[in-house]
Amino acid sequence: xxxxxxxxEVDRIRRIAQEHPQFLTTVFTPAEIAYCQSKKNPYQxxxxxxxxxxxxxKAIGKGWLQGIAWTDIExxxxxxxxxxxxxxxxxxxxxxxxxxxxxxxxLSHCREYAIAVVSAGVAVPDKKGR
Amino acid sequence: MDDKEIxxxxxxxxxxxxGVDESEVKPTSVLFDDLGAxxxxxxxxxxxxxxxxxxxxxxxxxxQDILAAEGISEQEVIVDGALTELGxxxxxERMTEVNPEKIKAGFRIDDIPTxxxxxxxxxxxxxxxxxx
Lengths: 130, 132
Fold this sequence. Notes:
Chain A is α+β, with helices and mostly antiparallel strands and 130 residues long. Chain A has helices at 10-19, 22-27, 30-37, 42-60, 89-98; strands at 2-9, 73-77, 83-87, 102-109, 113-121. Chain A is globular, with a radius of gyration of 15 Å.
C-alpha cells in the first residue's frame, strides 16, 4: 500500500482561480467544477479536490510533470457523501503498471485549509469474499 | 527579446507568484528550498509565464522530454520511479543550471520539481519562444 497526503490553502486556490481563468479547467473536470460551484463555499471544495489530486500523485510517485494530468484524477462524491477517486485514461495505465487496484480517499476542510489522505493498494476481499 | 529581458519578466512572474522580495530572486535560486515555493506555486508561475510571453508551456512528460533526442527507452533511464546512472547523466546534461551533485542515480523522478531554479524557467521560456 502507498500513501499520499496534501494540505492546500483555500485562499491560494481562490486567488489563482481568480487570477488565471484557465486554472479551474486545467485542474478540474467539468463535473468537479459543477459540484464545487454548487456549494456555498466553492473554493473549500476545490481546495479539497486539489489536495486529493496531489495526494494521488504522491501515492503513485508521479505528478503533472511526468504526464499525469490533474483532470485524469477525478474526485466524485457518491450519493452517500463519500468521495471516490475515478481515474482517467493515463492514470488507469499507470495504475495497471504499478499493480494498483484502486484508491481510498478522505477529505476534510475548514475555512483556511483543505486536506486529503489517499491510499493506493491492491483491493482486499471483505468477509463476504467480495 | 534578449536574455536580460526574458530573465526580468521571469523574475517578475516569480516575485508575484511567491510574494517574495525581488532581492531574494537570483538565477541560481532554487524555487522550493530558497524561495519557499510549493507545487501549486509552480502552476501559478507557469500560468504567469504563458501570459507574459504568450507561449504554451507543456504540462507533462518531462522524462520523455529529457530523452527525446536520444532515442533511449524510458526503462534505461528510470526504474521504479528513480533515475538510473544513465538517467542521472542525461538529466545533468539537460539541467545544466542545477548543481550536478544533486542529480545522482536513485534520484526520484517526482522530486525533479525540487531542483527547479529561476534559470530553469528562463530556459523553458527560451525554448518555447524559439518554437514560436
